Amino acid sequence: MSYITLALAKGRTAKSSISLLKNIDIHFPGFHEESRKLVFYDKEEKIKLVFVKAVDVPTYVEKGAADIGIVGKDNILESQADVYEMLDLKLGKCKFVVAGKSQQLEEKQKLTIASKYPVIAIKHFQKKGQSIETVKLNGSVELAPLIGLADYIVDIVETGNTINENGLTIIEEIEDISTRLIVNKASFATKSENIRQFINSLKSGLE
Ligand code: PRP
Ligand code: MG
């Protein structure tokens, strides 16, 4: 019996991802939001669902621990994982921005940027020829400029509430983000029929 292992990001977009699967008739009978279980099988035992931290989904897929993954573009970019990105699921739409206390970046030889996404931050400022030092944080990034830990932040904005409520301003927009379907490169060859079928039904579910 050959099933596809699907790594799904826990958290914000989990519920809408599960609904999307439901729309294409893939049901996980044991799944409910409060469950602490991390592994589920769909009714027809075609798919094994594993719930992992969003930031780890690209790693599971790159290493082949999962054949496919559903995760935000933010984590795909930051991980630099060597995977195929096959589909934009258009869930969890938001964007990467540079934000700070001022309307524009100050002219300084080296800026200190706090972020959960140092790779993204470095790439963005490299393109502009601005040298930076990064401070890696794991959350509440908006606090960093307020408390003098960094000059600016690179973070995600969805509604804008968090930056607004903390008196920060968007200075630059970096890139749009949404949930994507990624595929392990070897699995795409060995389980090609199952994976293609899955992708095609997801595609039609999105239409
Ligand atoms: C995310 C992100 C922003 C906020 C954006 O943080 O890092 O802070 O959401 O959403 P908004 O524009 O709708 O306010 P999250 O809530 O995941 O918390 P964390 O950064 O502390 O992990
Ligand atoms: Mg945050």
UniProtKB/TrEMBL annotation:
The keyword Protein biosynthesis does not apply. It is an enzyme of class 2 (transferase). Its EC number is 2.4.2.17. It is found in: Cytoplasm. It catalyses: 1-(5-phospho-beta-D-ribosyl)-ATP + diphosphate = 5-phospho-alpha-D-ribose 1-diphosphate + ATP. GO terms for molecular function: ATP binding; ATP phosphoribosyltransferase activity. InterPro entries: ATP_PRibTrfase_cat, ATP_PRibTrfase_CS, ATP_PRibTrfase_HisG, ATP_PRibTrfase_HisG_short. Pathway: Amino-acid biosynthesis; L-histidine biosynthesis; L-histidine from 5-phospho-alpha-D-ribose 1-diphosphate: step 1/9. Keywords: Amino-acid biosynthesis, ATP-binding, Cytoplasm, Glycosyltransferase, Histidine biosynthesis, Nucleotide-binding, Transferase. Pfam families: HisG (PF01634). GO terms for biological process: L-histidine biosynthetic process. Residues 53-203 form the ATP phosphoribosyltransferase catalytic domain. It comes from the Bacteria. One of its GO terms (cellular component) is cytoplasm. The keyword Glycosyltransferase applies. Lacks the C-terminal regulatory region which is replaced by HisZ. Belongs to the ATP phosphoribosyltransferase family. Short subfamily. Catalyzes the condensation of ATP and 5-phosphoribose 1-diphosphate to form N'-(5'-phosphoribosyl)-ATP (PR-ATP). Has a crucial role in the pathway because the rate of histidine biosynthesis seems to be controlled primarily by regulation of HisG enzymatic activity. Heteromultimer composed of HisG and HisZ subunits. HAMAP family: HisG_Short (MF_01018). This is ATP phosphoribosyltransferase. It comes from Virgibacillus indicus.
